[in-house]
Write a sequence for this structure.
C-alpha cells in the first residue's frame, strides 16, 4: 500500500519533504494493474523498484525505526 511505502521511507530516516520529492518524481512511472484488479491495483514490481532504488536500508530489519505493516487478502 502507499502507506506502507511511505512508512518504509519514514522509518529509514527520510524527512517528509524528501519522501514527497521521491514519490512525485516517480508518479508517472507507477503502473496500474487493470488486467487483474483482484491481484493488485498497483504494480508491485514498480513499487519494489522505487524502494530498492531509494531506500538506504536494504532489509526491513535494518531500518532506523521499527516498521510494522498490517495486510489482508480479500480472497
Amino acid at each position: 500500500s502507499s502507506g506502507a511505502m511511505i512508512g518504509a521511507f519514514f522509518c529509514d530516516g527520510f524527512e517528509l519533504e524528501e519522501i514527497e520529492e521521491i514519490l512525485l518524481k516517480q508518479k508517472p512511472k507507477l503502473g496500474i494493474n487493470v488486467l487483474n484488479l483482484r491481484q493488485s491495483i498497483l504494480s508491485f514490481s514498480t513499487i519494489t523498484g522505487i524502494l530498492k532504488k531509494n531506500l538506504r536500508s536494504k532489509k526491513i530489519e535494518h531500518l532506523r525505526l521499527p516498521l510494522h505493516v498490517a495486510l489482508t487478502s480479500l480472497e
